[in-house]
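agent> Task received from the user: take the single chain below, predict its 3D structure, and emit structure tokens. No templates, no multimer pairing.
agent> Plan: (1) validate residues, (2) run structure prediction, (3) serialize to tokens, (4) report one or two observations.
agent> Step 1 OK, no nonstandard residues flagged.
tool_call: predict_structure(input=
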Amino acid sequence: MNVSISKSLAAAGLALSGVAFAQSATPAPDYTLSYNAGVVTDYRYRGLTQSRQQAALQGGIDFAHSSGFYLGAWASTIKWVKDGGGNAPLETDFYGGYKGTAGDIGYDVGILRYQYFNHDLESSPNTTELYGAVTYSLFTLKYSHAISDLFGFDNSKNSWYLDLSAAFDLGNGWSLTPHIGYQKVKVDGDYSYYDYSLTLGKDLGNGWSASAALVGTDANRANYRTVNDKFAGKTMVVVGLKYAF
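)
tool_result: status=success, residues=245
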């Protein structure tokens, strides 16, 4: 699960247009606004396919304040709600929080809403989570706690997800990110599982980046099947291409 208004936007616009001031440097804006769009060969979330192991289109917008507060929205095409008898072709995420540092420790706390508009499912897939993360050196540990039912599981409030990742800079725009996570589903322990991934990333320049991730889980195969009877947590390589601007 990666923003200027009024005078700040105007200042940023002048800077981008090449206008220069000989007397003094233009101060950095208090706000930044960024966008991203991309495509992946399979939308995997916490190790499980959301797009029936098929390609998905994705995009988002992020607003960040220099104080550390941020807001954002992100969306992806999906198939699992339709496969379950609903109508939502999109997952839309809304989030907000605060990032800061305490000595050598970085931290990030916030709230995230997964929204499936017009889903028409008897058990709502809409989910709200609180999250907190700490980063030290290369490592990030994140905890997410559902304050609603979790993705359509009835009576699953207080389910949680814990994940640990590391970010290795390989040089020349290459990066390597290993990850392991554990999803606890409160309603039934048989639905809880571990997931893992190893992602190789490449900064292509001019806002473009590419990735290839080996993704898998130890989820119960009988509990997590797609509509075409494939294992939703099958180990496979997912390739992505993204443009940020």
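agent> Step 4: summary for the user.
Confidence is low (pLDDT under 50) at residues 1-23.
agent> Done.
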